[in-house]
Amino acid sequence: ATMPPLLSAIATAGRHGVLVKSAVAMERLGEVDTVALDKTGTLTEGTPEVTGVRPLPGSGLDADALLALAAAAEHPSEHPVARAVVTAARARGLPIVPAEEFTAMPGRGVAAVVGGRRVTVGRSEDPAAAAAAAAAAADATRVPTEVRPPARPADGRDSTPTGATTVLVSRDATPVGTLTLTDRLRPDAPAAAAALAGLTDAGPVLLTGDNAGAAARAAAATGITDVRADLLPEDKVNAVRDLQRHGHKVLFVGDGVNDAPALAAAHSGIALGGVGSDLALETADAVLVRDDLTAVPAVVRLSRTARRLVL
Ligand code: ADP
Ligand code: MG
């Protein structure tokens, strides 16, 4: 007996390095007409490195003290930024003191009490929100009325290399420094984006929580023209829902715990296995188990062929 087309497509997808969870999931993958991609950990490798440590004047911190402070707050987090900060601190032999009252703010950053002082590490675009969220979680009387972002470094953020992002470190709601992180584009990202553009009416859409500059550079390097940056996890969900309200069936491709809501809202979802969070893996229709993003368009094509054979 010959295998039903959708099952044999699942077997072929497996050889491409994509684990499709069921025949129904296989079918959904071929129904999509729009693809939305996350940036960090999806278009990029998701293992950034700390390439800049800048204490702010007046903070009383040197680079090592700033990095150690950030690492203490980030230690409990599994976010790629957090792993990079902890790795950099360890590489310099810095002590990482245990933090208390750790809180993760998805898509924003982290907050924790380190040595009795409240430390936040997060988006530099939004220091007031990050500090206010951290303070609200603990001591409402400490909510700052105004928190100014740090002055731009003299070299300017636009001169940072492709894939760079900057996060702000604050102590007791006062900015004390910035960390710059550099991620590498996946080598197969441009080919995957081009193949996806060929399979859908419009090209892929980039949805990211990172800043507009980092998003634009990743998009330019992969030939993606529809870019939406500075999105919180719920903004990613709304972007997916909005596309679907306009009659599209969206495939969302992402890796992080922050991507799970968008994966759930989309018609179909693929999670990246290597760096992916457990929640993303659970929510997706399929998991990319090999480091090859071109398997995404390949599996959409496989599903379309199988569906034609079923109908
Ligand atoms: P993406 O959509 O690109 O995967 P995320 O939604 O995970 O990005 O994060 C968006 C932004 O929020 C990051 O670029 C970073 O500035 C900030 N951020 C998120 N988590 C952390 C963290 N643990 N430490 C510092 N910054 C963080
Ligand atoms: Mg991500």
From TrEMBL:
It is found in: Cell membrane. Residues 140-164 are annotated as: Disordered. Belongs to the cation transport ATPase (P-type) (TC 3.A.3) family. Type IB subfamily. This is Metal-transporting ATPase. The chain holds residues 312 to 622 of 676 of the full protein.
